[in-house]
Design a protein that fits this description.
This protein is an alpha/beta fold and about 300 residues long. It is built from 10 helices and 12 strands. The chain has 3 domains: about 110 residues, 4-hydroxy-3-methylbut-2-enyl diphosphate reductase, catalytic domain (Cobalt-precorrin-4 Transmethylase, domain 1, 3-Layer(aba) Sandwich); about 90 residues, Rossmann fold; about 90 residues, Cobalt-precorrin-4 Transmethylase, domain 1, CATH 3.40.1010. Helix 7 links the parallel strand 8 and strand 9. The structure holds iron/sulfur cluster.
């Protein structure tokens, strides 16, 4: 069996910086409650590992981040790399919580573009995923934004002079082009700012370039948008067998065969150690005497 690790894979700079900020905050404030508002990244192992540093995560998909914030009475609140809305930011300050903001600079740059478009009185189309924290922050901050998940969501606005179009940083670069084409057809005057971040784009392009793999193992949490997009793009590019696993603990070894070429990648929210464990296990796989699947070591997962 040939194992092909794909590069780049795993943590992007925004995720790396967010986790580092959380760990540093807890270390410098040993007697203060530290709470992350929402999952710092969409990866349950990371959330579990942060607990070991006395960093709590407050997350419930049934509640918005504004609603969740009301459950934090004191201490430090960390905003995640996905960004946060103005109203949550203002409410946290009003309640005298200490704010640590891990919003990724790429997300901040998209938010700044939208703010400029708002000031210029442009109508704003935001291509993103409903319910995702990054798009939620945009929709909560800007009343006049239309969220577009699919072509059918493009509104009909006859006579609209200026339309500004941008997008969530972690969506599929292929899906977005179909939607942008449809927008331009309807609104030839639309100004387009493609904002897929470099980390997401490079990971998607690397998957598209795999030519000879029979299978692709994507390591990451199914809740992570950029992880799911990697699996989707690989399937669209004709890789016959694509599996998404959260860690080595979920690997189904019955899919392996000695003559296969298996590529391995990971979403931007997947710790390197989780992916390396999969690569190492596959590389040393003995079809005569297969080793037991190892366990994930949460205690050392976020060690640098
Ligand atoms: S995926 Fe992109 S936007 Fe999101 S944290 Fe990473 S670099 Fe930033």
């Amino acid at each position: 069996m040939e194992v092909i690790p794909i590069a780049p894979r795993g943590f992007c700079k925004g995720v790396y910086q967010a986790i580092r900020l959380a760990k540093q905050t807890a270390k410098e404030n040993p007697n203060v409650k530290v709470t992350v508002l929402g999952q710092i990244v969409h990866n349950r192992y990371v959330v579990e590992a942060l607990n070991k540093y006395d960093i709590q995560t407050l997350d419930d998909p049934k509640f918005s981040r504004f609603e969740l914030l009301s459950q934090i009475d004191d201490g430090i609140v960390i905003f995640t790399a996905h960004g946060i809305s103005k109203i949550v930011r203002e409410e946290a300050a009003r309640r005298n919580l200490i704010i640590k903001d891990a919003t990724c600079e790429d997300v901040l740059s998209t938010q700044a573009l939208i703010e400029s478009a708002r000031l210029a009185n442009q109508t704003i189309f935001y291509i993103g995923k409903f319910g995702h924290p990054e798009s939620n922050a945009i929709m909560e901050s800007f009343q006049q934004v239309y969220l577009i998940e699919k072509i059918e969501d493009i509104p009909s606005l006859p006579g609209q002079p200026e339309i500004f179009v941008t997008n969530q940083t972690t969506i599929s670069k292929n899906d977005i082009e179909h939607i942008i084409d449809a927008i331009i057809k309807q609104y030839p005057q639309a100004l387009i700012a493609r904002e897929i971040c470099a980390a997401t784009r490079l990971r998607q392009e690397a998957v598209e370039k795999i030519k000879l793999a029979d299978s692709l193992v994507v390591v990451g949490d199914p809740a992570s948008n950029n992880t799911r997009m990697l699996a989707k793009i690989a399937a669209e590019h004709g890789i016959r067998h694509v599996v998404l696993i959260e860690s080595i603990e979920q690997l189904d070894t019955t899919i392996l065969s000695s003559d296969m070429r298996v590529a391995v990648t990971a979403g931007a929210s997947t710790p390197q150690k989780l992916t390396q464990q999969v690569i190492d296990y596959l590389k040393s796989y003995d079809f005569e005497h297969p080793a037991e699947l190892p366990r994930v070591d949460i205690d050392t997962l976020l060690d640098e």
